[in-house]
Design brief:
Elements (H helix, E strand, L loop, with lengths): L17 H26 L18 H17 L8 H30 L10 H10 L18 H16 L4 H18 L8 H6 L4 H15 L6 H16 L6 H4 L1 H13 L7 H11 L1 H21 L7 H35 L6 H5 L3
Helix pairs in contact: 1-2, 1-12, 1-13, 1-14, 2-8, 2-11, 3-5, 3-14, 6-8, 8-11, 9-11, 13-14
């Protein structure tokens, strides 16, 4: 992400906001907790649709909505060359380099597991079509009502890739006009898809109200670029209000009940005063760096972690202990994956596609 405001960057020349790095880490950890609680619920006879509660809170999946907001925020700030020939294509190539290599690698691992244990992953339609759709970010039904690729959490990347396509097309226009164009296209799509179901997987995904969350992130990023900042009290109030709204568990359109709280949280973190460096900053920044690896790999870690937990008799222990164990093991694996797989892959493809001067950090933060 190109430097926007040197005083508000985590380190000179990188433009990586400390609070956004924290928030990337927090979002990924929330998703880990959400999936860890699946095993806790299953041990108590609860199905996958049951609330995944810990300390009375069940909104752990909120991390996904934070990710969508962060994506919009970073894209409007990191993309350059609006209105210039080829800018959209350059942007899209960078996004492919950032997203595809590790996703394909982890998806291949998921395919290998499915082939080795066919009963672990029922697929109602044509298996080859389903697997190809999983690789190519084309929404395909796994079973009736289940719109997930073979790497389950990869469903969010189907939305991400669609957002990148529209964002790249908007770059034919100057930045301000691009934001205006997206402000028309996304609400129109959400309106057209208001009555669709997953029975039409592609149209449902591309017109889901969730796409509005990327737009909300673009707005926060645009405000940030304009130099607007919040005082401490306003930033903390926004973050607190967002958290409270999620905890209240309202029912309604996702863009409203999750998108608005996520906008408050991301806006509070991005527009508020930047924190001083600390040990917590260091750890959260490391997890933020590895958040994409953490998001993609944690489900591979949780299953063996749960088996180990049952072997040592942890089923009868407080659920929070397994959640902490899940976080520790998942983060440890993800940091190793980031350092030894994701980062080298990104550097390799940047060198092949973008040239040797491209900075890995400027693109690995944009997700």
């Amino acid at each position: 992400m190109a430097a926007i405001d040197q005083q508000n960057s985590a380190s000179a020349g990188t433009g990586v906001l400390v609070p956004i790095q924290w928030l990337r880490a927090v979002a990924a950890l929330l998703v880990v907790v959400h999936h860890a609680l699946y095993y806790v619920n299953a041990a108590h006879g609860l199905g996958p649709e049951a609330d995944r509660r810990l300390f009375g809170f069940s909104g752990w999946v909120f991390g996904i909505h934070i990710f969508f907001l962060i994506s919009g925020f970073i894209m409007i700030n990191s993309a350059s060359g609006f209105g210039e020939p080829g800018a959209g294509l350059r942007f899209f190539k960078r996004r492919l380099i950032r997203i595809v290599p590790l996703y394909w690698l982890v998806t291949t691992a998921a395919v290998a597991v499915a082939l080795a244990m066919p009963s672990s992953l029922p697929i109602s339609g044509d298996k080859l079509t389903y697997i190809l759709g999983s690789y190519l970010f084309i929404p395909v039904l796994r079973t009736e009502g289940d719109l997930r690729p073979i790497l389950g959490q990869g469903w969010t990347l189907d939305y991400e890739m669609f957002f990148y396509v529209l964002f790249a097309l908007s770059m034919f226009l100057p930045r301000r006009n691009a934001v205006l164009a997206l402000s028309v296209v996304f609400p129109v799509l959400a309106f057209l898809g208001r009555d669709l179901t997953v029975a039409s997987p592609i149209l449902f995904t591309w017109t889901d109200g969730l796409v509005l969350e990327f737009l909300f992130g673009v707005y926060v990023g645009f405000v940030y670029r304009a130099g607007w900042r919040l005082p401490n009290w306003a930033a903390y109030t926004a973050i607190g209000a967002g958290a409270v709204l999620v905890a209240l568990d309202f029912h309604g359109p996702t863009a409203l009940i999750a998108g608005v709280p996520a906008t408050l949280v991301v806006g509070g973190f991005a527009l508020g005063p930047q924190p001083r460096a600390s040990a917590a900053d260091g750890w959260l920044a490391h997890i933020g760096d590895a958040s994409y690896s953490l998001y993609l790999t944690h489900t591979f870690v949780l299953r063996p972690a749960w088996h180990l937990w049952t072997i040592v008799g942890g089923v009868d222990w407080p659920p929070v202990l397994f959640v902490l164990f899940s976080i520790l093991t998942s983060v440890s694996v993800s940091i190793a994956v980031y350092r030894f797989i994701e980062r080298p892959l990104t550097r390799y493809f940047q060198g092949r596609w973008l040239g040797p001067r491209t900075s890995i950090r400027s693109y690995t933060q944009a997700s």
